[in-house]
Amino acid sequence: MNSKYNSKNKKSDLPQRQQRIFDFINSQEAGVLACVDPNCEPHATVVYYLIDPKDFSISFLTKVETRKYDNLMRNNHAFMVVFDVASQTVAQIIGEAKKFTNADRINELAARFTKTSLKVSKGKIAPISKLEQSEYVGFKITPKQIRIAFYNTSKGGDYKALFDTIESFELKPGY
Alpha carbon 62 to chain centroid distance? Predict the structure, then answer.
């Protein structure tokens, strides 16, 4: 598989396959979050995110009164896609989103995402910061499944041969 996303000089208790998947998701700044609206129509938006190395949960921020907030409060099923154009690597994360309101955690994420946005966009703040809607809230997606494909290393083949998958039971601490 792709060595670009292998850990360097890190001691990890994760199996090599899980570490490679974590390293890829952790190396990207943003992904596309998909959910459904009240009419079961799809809704997708780009979010900055952070992955937790313990359980691979994904945290992101939004604001109350946004469509993504309303959708996730009605139906917590979430699907996230992380893609790297240069390596043609894609990760698909399926899970359930749960709101959190811990001010310290929200401030920590907001500071991190602002720093990332300023770095990658040449001085522009994150899009969510430009919305005047109400206060920030956080969501944490607990994955049920993570699938990843490193297309640039594949010689092709069937669909199952291209993807490597982690199921939720493999993401439990101590597994």
Answer: 14
